[in-house]
TrEMBL record:
Converts 2,5-diamino-6-(ribosylamino)-4(3h)-pyrimidinone 5'-phosphate into 5-amino-6-(ribosylamino)-2,4(1h,3h)-pyrimidinedione 5'-phosphate. This is Riboflavin biosynthesis protein RibD. GO terms for biological process: riboflavin biosynthetic process. One of its GO terms (molecular function) is zinc ion binding. It holds the Pfam family dCMP_cyt_deam_1. PANTHER family: 2,5-DIAMINO-6-RIBOSYLAMINO-4(3H)-PYRIMIDINONE 5'-PHOSPHATE REDUCTASE (PTHR38011:SF7), DIHYDROFOLATE REDUCTASE FAMILY PROTEIN (AFU_ORTHOLOGUE AFUA_8G06820) (PTHR38011). Its cofactor is Zn(2+). It comes from Actinomyces gaoshouyii. NADP(+) binds at residues 166, 182, 208, 212, 285-291.
């Protein structure tokens, strides 16, 4: 069967189970400029391999699954590949997944949803042109929810926004005298550096710049950056606000920084999108975080909570203009909370917008 109307397709139990496995694998990847994608390979109704995308520059989910199946000695002539997002049809940091599927000789592909990114889409058409049977729509609602905010960013042509904050148990990011270094411990801070290394740009407000004079560089952390021998990727260092950036600011160490002279989050993101930035990490302070939250432009929220109480001081978030509980900004946990040293890390994604 060719075509992609899910209402015309009858999915087998094995296909549904394989797509469910692909969705579960996708959740293991990091959010950011790329969507979460998982893939599974069926042969004779049995799942023989599952793969997922682990971040920029790593094999895509389809290739990850194909490599695992090949290692297991799979006969691809009887295989069916199921993937949560339409296989890409372009060459980026990695070759197109559609061609990898064709080269492997896999005759049937099912993808949950189409890719809205005009640069990456077209993989389904390339597969059909090569004689591969392509269907779509299996578990499409679940796949859409998984990447709802990324899909929104792709359609709006804006960067995906992750906001990270470190706070005490009572929601303070600084004591009454302004001191804030360090609320969290070494393990949580190392995790933050790994997050910086994955982002295209890191953004703080001019108030944070004046108070902390941060370097905003990614340094060796506890994850990918410490395990790799390659140079750590450095995000574009950005300051948002109307105040000039002092000539002796630490982030001026080289030319890889940018002043965004605005208080409008949408304007700041538009400038970064024009520069090709696909993932922005907001690290503070409360004024900037509040502005992005109030505009519903925080797609992912990562909260580091230290076992401290201050009772007074600077709160993590300011007034969002919410007068009733029903108007609260809601986030969905991506995974169970993680203990890093003495600190708790919570990762969550903004709920899909109401249309």
């Amino acid at each position: 069967m060719r075509g992609g109307n899910p209402r015309e397709s009858t999915w087998t139990r094995a296909e549904s189970e394989a797509m469910s496995a692909a969705l579960e694998a996708a959740r293991q990847g990091p959010r950011g400029a790329n969507p979460l994608v998982g893939a599974a390979i069926l042969i004779d109704g049995r799942i023989i391999a599952v793969g997922h995308h682990r971040g920029a520059g790593t094999p895509h989910a389809e290739v990850d699954a194909i490599d695992a199946a090949r290692h297991a000695g799979a006969d691809f002539s009887r295989a069916e590949l199921l993937v949560t997002l339409e296989p890409c049809g372009h060459t980026g940091r990695t070759p197109p997944c559609a061609q990898a599927i064709i080269d492997a000789g896999i005759p049937r592909v099912i993808h949950a949803i189409d890719d809205p990114n005009p640069t990456a889409s077209g993989g389904a058409a390339a597969l059909r042109a090569a004689g591969v049977e392509v269907r779509s729509g299996l578990l499409a609602p679940e796949a859409t929810v998984l990447n709802s905010r990324w899909l929104e960013c792709a359609r709006a042509r804006r960067p995906f926004v992750t906001a990270k904050t470190a706070m005490t148990l009572d929601g303070r990011i600084a004591a009454a005298d302004g001191t804030s270094q360090w609320i969290t411990g070494p393990a949580a801070r190392a995790s933050g550096h790994d997050l910086r290394a994955r982002a295209g740009a890191i953004l703080v407000g001019s108030g944070t710049l004046a108070a902390d004079n941060p370097r905003l560089t990614a340094r060796v952390g506890s994850g990918a950056s410490s395990a790799s021998t390659s140079p750590i990727h450095q995000p574009l260092r950005c300051v948002m606000g109307l105040r000039p950036v002092p000539s002796d600011a630490a982030l001026r160490a080289d030319d890889h920084w940018l002043h965004l002279p605005t208080r409008d989050p949408r304007e700041a993101l538009a400038v970064l999108a024009e520069r090709g930035i696909g993932h922005v990490l907001i690290e503070g302070g409360a004024t900037v975080l509040t502005a992005f939250l109030a505009a519903d432009l925080v797609d992912e929220l990562i909260v580091h909570i230290a076992p401290l109480l201050l009772g007074s001081g600077r709160g993590a978030v300011g007034d969002l203009g919410i007068a009733t509980l029903a108007g609260a900004h809601r986030f969905q946990p991506d995974c169970p909370p993680v203990l890093l040293g003495d600190d708790i890390v919570i990762r969550c994604t903004a709920s899909p917008r109401a249309h």
